[in-house]
Amino acid sequence: MNSTLLPEFLNDLPACAAQCFETAMNASSCATTDRWCICTGHSILETALGCYSLSCTPKQNLFSTNYTRAACGIHEESKASLTPALAGSLGMLALIMTCLRMAQRTMMKRSFGWDDGLILMAMACAAILNIMAFPSKCISLLEQAITNKPVQKHGLGTNIWTIPFEDITTQLKLLLIAEIFYMPAEALTQLSFLAFYLRIFPPGNFRYIVYTLAGISICFGISNTLIMIFQCLPVSYFWNSWSGEATGHCIDINTYSWYRAAMQIAMDLSIIALPIYPLSKLALSRRKKTLVLLMFCTGFLITVVSCLRLQSLIRFSKSANISMDNNPAIYWSMVECDVAIVCACMPCLPALLKPLLPACFGSRYYASSDNERTPPVKLERIRRKDEFSVLSTAVSEDALMASRG
User: Fold this and answer.
1) Cys-Cys crosslink for 51: which of 20, 23, 242, 283, Cβ 3.0 to 4.6 Å?
2) Can you give the CATH number for the domain in which 113 is found?
3) 17-59 per-position pLDDT tens digit
């Protein structure tokens, strides 16, 4: 951008943007031939770009912003590779853990339960959520392979003014799909935890609490899914509203995010903390009891991720650069679902690791005192009918009944 190119530059801008840039130039002390002053003396660019957003339509604003920044040679930040990397790594870990859980059931000839079916459904929803990170990335790589041109910026995590208009719409569609499948994935994982509790803990008041939480989780999951689908009316307004050319309205997503996050964190903490007291009463050695409690407490990671996801959603709801700021909303949703599935599948690991680490995952059953040791006949029955071992020790349905002594 120099004295000969400046008129051409202004002619290429929409009239609203050209007027904004000329006004910013007139208010500055930079010469029209001083490219360095114009582009690095932030007052001109900040004034012009701010004026674009106020004086131009959304599409004119994006075009003018991209054209101005490109003329100044400003490097554009990109985090397009972060979401696919997280989706690939954590998504694969969740899938491996789910497969190990199913393998443990099959190899050890243990019956499948509701908790297994629910975690499979949660994994299916999470898989769709993870796949949302890849379509635009794959398109870019395919274009590069065919045309031998630089990869086009189709992916999430790039500044909104650098991508084609149609890709903005596509990204918002992907975001909506991801959020819709996030809701049932989350609820199904919670229900899998609760069904697992019903499997391993004996009847009593504890079960009534589990059933109550399950009912709340079902209602919460269904209502959240419906709210996500119909947060804008018409539904298409969610992905068309950015252009300013569509008509419709949306709920206050900021307020809803706070409400949903508060309920979600309360549910997560309730479900994770629920088994701590009965587990502390198990007739296990102190070392094994500590390991069991630590394994269940890893579920608190889910709550931490939920808080991080809330922060990203609030930032996205206030953002004008939605292509960049919806990236954290996508990847924290994926991370939360994947981490929850991994935590739900952790109890299968000790049974599979027992042959490799017999010292850590031995098969002795402990009683709460020397006078209350489980009879050998009952030990044998427990060993044969061990429904679902947490540490391949005493945490099966029959073993828990025996350990209550």
Assistant:
1) 20
2) 1.20.1070
3) 999 998 888 888 777 777 788 887 667 888 888 999 999 999 9
